[in-house]
Amino acid sequence: MIIFRKLLVPLLCLSFGATSIIAANASSTLYAIDPAAQNLLSQMQTAYNALNSLSEQVTAEESPNIAHSLAVHTSIKLLRPGYLEVSSDSKSARSGAEEVVTDGSHCYVFAPQYPTRYLKYPVPATAQAVKSALSQRIASSLTIGLFIDSTTVSTMFASSRLATLHLEKSAKINGTATHAVVVTDVDGVTLTLYIGDNDHLLRRVVALDPEKSGTFTETYESVQENSSLSPSNFSFVAPPHTVPFYGTSFDQAIQDAPDK
Q1: What fold, for 4-14+30-254?
Q2: Least confident stretch, 2-16, 39-53, 60-74, 112-126
């Protein structure tokens, strides 16, 4: 599954105070924050807040050499207030959940390491239900966080670890014109967000960690906003020869009824 949070936990950065355009690290060295970049991040969050539904195809790659990395292809569908479907192709789903669905009454999670079981528990159709679903041993795309939580930008990019924040020149991602916001923390980890010029939705995120000599890329394609999704589009089809775990988490369910 998508593993965005693992690399970006140390990159919590950016102050959103109205007059805060300078930040300091532990040694009190000053670093500039570009207000234009700050504003574009805010516009991105506003755009996601305004969506009623979102569907997209996501390709995630993590490797010191992207050309030789294993790509994970994931389909994402979201509908307010609390409908979600995240499905990864079985060949690339190396760990975590291969499919997560909230259908308005239940959450279903299928993980390939438990081929004869799937998790099922009741949840209402709320944003909190989606957050609960995403806690089931999976990491989620940044776009899911932006869609379900209106404070994602102000929370994720709020830290004294900020080094720099600036805009880069425009770039086309799969034919979509974007501008890039580049954030670097005091340890040198750099996050680049390619934000669509017209809709302010993400088209690509690239994270570089010099200490690990690693690159993580998440690319968003076939982005459809406010499409004709309805609750009937969110239904879980149990894989053949599987039976449900019942519980509020995989850990609890497996402990109560371990897979044989």
Answers
A1: outer membrane lipoprotein receptor (LolB), chain A (2.50.20)
A2: 2-16
